[in-house]
Write a structure and sequence with these properties.
- The chain is α/β, with parallel strands linked by helices and 536 residues long.
- The chain has two domains: 285 residues, Metal-dependent hydrolases (TIM Barrel); 114 residues, Roll (Diaminopimelate Epimerase, Chain A, domain 1).
- The protein is 34% helix and 23% strand.
- It is built from 19 helices and 22 strands.
- Strands 1, 2, 3, 4, 5, 20, 21 and 22 form an eight-stranded mixed beta sheet that branches. Strands 6, 13, 14, 15, 16, 17, 18 and 19 form an eight-stranded mixed beta sheet that branches. Strands 7-8-9-10-12-11 form a six-stranded mixed beta sheet.
- Helix 4 packs across helix 6, helix 12 crosses helix 13 and helix 18 crosses helix 19.
- This is Amidohydrolase.
- InterPro entries: Amidohydro_3, Metal-dep_hydrolase_composite, Metal_Hydrolase, YtcJ-like.
């Protein structure tokens, strides 16, 4: 009977069934792994099975990003790429904006994404006015928590010199106290991002057909990096509709978990769906909320000010509202995942989690802290007591390098992206990029966690938080699966698990830690089927 279902045996010089646990081969039936073990034994057990031998390559479980934004990425890929890697200088950024503005018709908006002021330089509405003229233009920062609008965009949005920013938001101002075009937190989120918007916006949303094009581009990009599963950590109804459309068309090859934006939770609750609703391709796992701002955007909520400043960041969500929303989601038996970067933000969040657990005990319901960046011993103790899950940035030490110390100082940097501390404290820790806010490549994330060295400046930040390559791989597979409630079917090459795996040219557990990001991906498989292969 067993041979009536097609079976394929996969083998290679090195097969890591789990980080540091090699096997010779594994057999796949349908979308799942049927058995692992010695190649000869599997051949005998499945005599009719085809054998796929990857030769000198290494096979690892599929990489799983527990916090990124595929809906936002699908949108960004339709607009100008203003990342430092794409433009290299402020002159080139403005030239790209100028060219984009020329192509716009009357009433059309121009959008650009992934601008990085720390790498490319300072940008205000005045530079955008000179480049884009009367074309309403918004450029979002790589951290996605603030952006810069030109004068035409400010007018269209109804923002003027006497405007009061929305609660949880700020307007940037120059030395003369005039608007400089910076829209911070809710001042940007409410007009640009449908997942968090609380107001009507004059910016025309991209059509479902346009966003599907962006989704296809994003999916190929992520598969090429070895990603087989991701969690979209801020899903709106439009994002869910986009992913469902791709699923119906057979195009959703990237397994996607969803954290529904808390502003849309009432709709989800009304439908009676929640954590665990869906299937192995598309599943709702919980609800996303916010406490504070960004690390790279320098708006996170701190107990002590940023270096050379008296600024301590911004609280996006009112404390009372935070407690109310967490209490509701918790009482419904759903997982809460809340963005909290600064130490003060994390403490506020832990207060709310502790209150919910005390008021309405829910054994086994584990909540997440998204980013969970700046920690201390008290925070670790409280998280361990709650069995809370940490989802910190993997690639930020590599991406930001020494700039982190200029913003936070070396002592605080030694307590940021604290993978070592989380592991030592027995706290579940997942791998995440927060793309498009950080680099999405998992192998770069592994290198960043192992070396803590900036990829541009070579500066080591927070060396005490280094982990081994095996621990880093475990974080990006088993840890992420556990954070998404999928530990029983993802993260390992084991019987009954989904046959999601990546074929690499070199063994990441034996590679030079400084070269982990350069380990080539040869193939990416989802459910035993190749979804991406390198062109030869």
């Amino acid at each position: 009977m067993i041979d009536e279902v097609p079976v394929t045996i996969f083998t290679a010089r090195t097969v890591h069934a789990q980080a540091g646990r090699p096997v010779e081969a594994f057999a796949v039936t349908g979308e799942r792994i049927g058995a692992v073990g010695e190649l000869a034994g599997l051949r005998e057990r499945y005599p009719a099975a085809a054998v796929r031998d990857f030769g000198p390559a290494t096979v690892v479980p599929g990489f799983h990003d527990a916090h990124m934004h595929i809906g936002l990425t699908a949108e960004d890929l339709l607009h100008l790429d203003l990342s430092h890697a794409a433009v290299g200088s402020m002159d080139n950024l403005l030239a790209t904006v100028r060219e984009g503005a020329r192509a716009k018709g009357p009433g059309e908006w121009l959008r650009g994404a992934r601008f990085d002021d720390a790498k490319t330089g300072r940008l205000t509405r005045h530079e955008l006015d000179a480049a884009a003229g009367d074309v309403p233009t918004i450029v979002t920062h790589v951290a996605a928590h603030w952006g810069v609008a030109n004068s035409a965009a400010l007018r269209e949005l109804g923002y003027h010199e006497d405007s009061e920013p929305p609660a949880g938001g700020e307007f940037g101002r120059d030395a003369d106290n005039r608007l400089d075009g910076r829209l911070v937190e809710r001042a940007l989120l409410d007009v640009l991002y449908p997942a968090t918007s609380r107001t009507e916006s004059p910016i025309r949303p991209s059509s479902p057909e346009e966003r599907l094009v962006g989704l296809r581009r994003a999916t190929e990009m992520f598969h090429a990096a070895g990603l087989t599963s991701i969690c979209d950590a801020l899903a709106s109804p439009a994002d869910i509709a986009l992913l469902r459309r791709a699923q119906r068309a057979g195009e959703l090859t990237l397994r996607t978990s969803l954290l529904v934006a808390v502003d849309h939770y009432a709709k989800v609750r009304e439908l009676g769906v929640g954590s665990g609703f869906g299937d192995d391709r598309l599943r709702i796992i919980g609800v996303k909320g916010f406490v504070d701002g960004a690390i790279g955007g320098r708006t996170c909520l701190l107990s002590e000010p940023f270096c050379d400043s008296d600024y301590r960041g911004i609280q996006i969500t009112d404390t009372e509202e935070l407690h109310r929303s967490i209490a509701q989601v918790h009482a419904d038996g759903n997982q809460m995942a809340v963005h909290a970067n600064g130490d003060q933000a994390i403490r506020l969040l832990l207060d709310a989690y502790e209150e919910a657990a005390h008021t309405n005990p829910r054994p086994g319901l584990r909540h997440r802290i998204e980013h969970c960046t700046l920690i201390d011993e008290e925070i670790l103790r409280r998280m361990r007591a709650l069995d809370a899950i940490a989802v910190p940035f993997a690639g930020y030490p590599a991406y930001h390098g020494g700039a982190l110390e200029s913003w936070y100082g070396p002592e605080r940097t030694s307590r940021m992206f604290a993978h070592r501390s989380f592991l030592d404290a027995g706290i579940t820790v997942a791998g995440s990029s927060d793309y498009p806010c950080g680099p999405f490549e998992p192998l770069l994330g592994l290198q960043s966690m192992v070396t803590r060295r900036g990829m541009d400046d070579g500066i080591t930040v927070g060396a005490a938080q280094r982990v081994t390559a095996a621990e880093a791989l475990e974080i990006y597979t088993v840890g992420s699966a556990e954070a998404c409630g999928e530990a029983g079917r993802k993260g390992r090459l084991a019987p009954g698990y989904l046959a999601d795996f990546v074929v690499l040219d070199r063994d990441p557990l034996a590679a030079d830690p400084e070269d982990l990001a350069a380990v080539p991906v040869a193939h990416t498989y989802v459910g035993g089927t190749p979804v991406w292969s390198r062109q030869t």
